[in-house]
Amino acid sequence: MNLLLDTHVLLWAVDQPERLDRAAREAIRNGNNRVQVSAASAWEISIKAALGKLRFDSDLGAVLDASGFDPLAIGFDHARVAGALPPVHRDPFDRMLVAQAQLEVLTLVTRDPVFSRYDVATLAA
After folding, report:
1. What is d(CA 64, CA 37) in angstroms, rounded to the nearest whole number?
2. What is the rounded distance in angstroms from the CA atom of residue 122 to the CA atom of residue 119?
3. What residue ranges define each of the domains in the chain, with the CATH number in brackets?
């Protein structure tokens, strides 16, 4: 299974894995699964940290390397699809995750129920 972690799932996976549902935790740890993290999550973490809404003092690239997670860049088609999604969710970071999951055929690991309103595979976190 190819996974795309929602930003909160990424943070929990590296710092508080016990917060994740057992199935999500096992899927993330399963070496047969490819786990990806969107550049949108890096952007969201950086913005929230700069605004004081989140404390994240680690080097995200090093965190990904240590965790075995792969970065997923944002491409032109990702942006095009994110912009054309139905207005179910106004959060641009989440819309990008949906677009990337759709185009890259990834299962989005999240606890946010709004994703179920899009045509995207999800795994409850």
Report:
1. 8
2. 9
3. 2-124 (3.40.50.1010)
Amino acid at residue number 68: G
Residue 35 token pair = 């786990």
pTM of the model: 0.95
The pLDDT profile of the chain, 125 residues, written as one tens digit per residue, is 999 999 999 999 999 999 999 999 999 999 999 999 999 999 999 999 999 999 888 889 999 999 999 999 999 999 999 999 998 888 999 999 999 999 999 999 999 999 999 999 999 99
Residue-by-residue DSSP string for the chain? -EEEE-HHHHHHHHH-GGGS-HHHHHHHH-TTSEEEEEHHHHHHHHHHHHTTS----S-HHHHHHHHTPEEE---HHHHHHHHHS-TT---HHHHHHHHHHHHHT-EEEES-GGGGGSS--EEE-
Compute CA 67 distance to the chain's CA centroid, rounded to the nearest angstrom.
14
